[in-house]
UniProtKB/TrEMBL annotation:
Matches recorded under Gene3D superfamilies: 3.40.50.880, Homeodomain-like (1.10.10.60)
Top-level taxonomic group: Bacteria
SUPFAM superfamilies assigned: Class I glutamine amidotransferase-like, Homeodomain-like
All copies of domain HTH araC/xylS-type, residue ranges: 226-324
Keywords recorded for this protein, A-Z: Transcription, Transcription regulation
Organism expressing this protein natively: Streptomyces solincola
InterPro entries: Class_I_gatase-like, DJ-1/PfpI, Homeodomain-like_sf, HTH_AraC, INH-QAR
Protein name as annotated: AraC family transcriptional regulator
GO molecular function (one): sequence-specific DNA binding
Lineage of the organism: Bacteria, Bacillati, Actinomycetota, Actinomycetes, Kitasatosporales
């Protein structure tokens, strides 16, 4: 492109407005901001995402952890040129009515609306999520669905992008979402460099499920289900059929299956599938082992069985998962 002898055009800046309120989760604010700030290191002038913070009255806010944050501006006076970021926290449960109203006024002016964790509840109250697919922390998805039935709530992904609106699950998912936005704006190399600088992984796709096997299920209070949860997690390649697990628990298969479900909230087979998925995903991300080897090591048995588990939980084949998300970090 001809730049009239002036050299290449400077990369575009994308001003970022972060909304603050009493009871905000400090990590929902600082996690994404560290990603966006790191993007400025390679940007002329160090301002890839010029930052402004605002609260309803411009007064300092107290985070749910007790940290005091002083905003730059009154929300009504803040300009929104590109990205509006709404963090979550306890303060989203019963917010000042002026807060969603203010977001409703700012939302149409932003090129990109983002919410971290229960910040989705504030965006839902404000209206921009109507008719959109969105997510939040898995523990609050039912609340979001009841609060605004017009929102198409997806409880599984760690973040969701629907047009100009992006929403994420809990704290660390906000970092994943911020890295994805930097990758979109400045390319994968920039996002990988930031991930390396912050000692985080640029490997979690938005459609990766929020759960781990342990967090998806209740932890059993009694033995033998509790001991078997631990055994399954630590020995995914062992014989884990209901009959084999029941024999280990010294119970009949029927009695064991009933007790396991009562204690954990899911069937033994479902729990084993989750463990298989969790181990397989890590092996695909962190090793170069073939799909067949990964399937055996993760306890899925065969590559076909592992493909079924991935398709059900993530909507993607294991080989495609690796091709899309297994990328080495650049060398120093």
């Amino acid at each position: 492109m001809d730049t009239g002898g002036r050299g290449p055009a400077a990369p575009r800046t994308r001003p970022l407005l972060v909304v603050l309120f009493d009871g905000v989760q400090s990590l929902d604010v600082s996690g994404p901001l560290e990603v966006f700030a790191a993007a400025g290191h390679a940007h002329p002038g160090g301002a890839a995402y010029p930052l402004t913070t605002a609260s309803l009255d411009g007064a300092p806010v107290r985070t749910q952890g007790g940290l005091r944050i002083a905003p730059d501006l009154v929300l009504a006076d803040a300009a929104v040129e590109h990205t509006l970021l709404v963090p979550g926290g306890e303060g989203t449960r019963h917010p000042d009515p002026r807060l969603p109203a203010g977001l409703g006024e700012h939302g149409p002016r932003a090129e990109r609306l983002t919410a971290v964790c229960t910040g989705s509840l504030l965006l839902a109250r404000a209206g921009p999520l109507d008719g959109r697919r969105a997510t939040t922390h898995r523990a609050h998805c039912d609340h979001l669905a009841r609060l605004r039935p017009q929102v198409r709530v997806d409880p599984d992904p760690i973040f969701v992008r629907d047009g100009r609106i992006a929403t994420s699950a809990g704290v660390t998912a906000g970092v994943d979402l911020a890295l994805a936005l930097v990758e979109e704006d400045h390319g994968r190399d920039a996002a990988l460099t930031i991930a390396r600088h912050l000692v985080v992984l640029l490997r979690r796709p938005g459609n990766q499920a929020q759960f781990s096997a342990r967090s998806a299920a209740q932890t059993a209070c009694r033995e033998p289900p509790r001991e078997l949860q631990q055994f399954i997690t630590e020995h995914p390649a062992a014989a884990l059929s209901v009959d084999a697990l029941a024999a280990r628990a010294r119970l009949s298969p029927r009695h064991f299956a009933r007790a396991f479900r009562a204690e954990t909230g899911m069937t033994p087979g479902r729990y084993v599938d989750r463990v298989c998925l969790e181990h397989a995903r890590r092996l695909l991300e962190d090793t170069s082992d073939g799909v067949h080897e990964v399937a055996r090591a993760a306890g899925c048995g065969t590559a076909e069985a592992m493909r079924r588990v991935f398709a059900t939980a993530l909507g993607i084949a294991p080989a495609d998962y690796r091709r899309r998300f297994h990328a080495p970090l650049p060398a120093h």
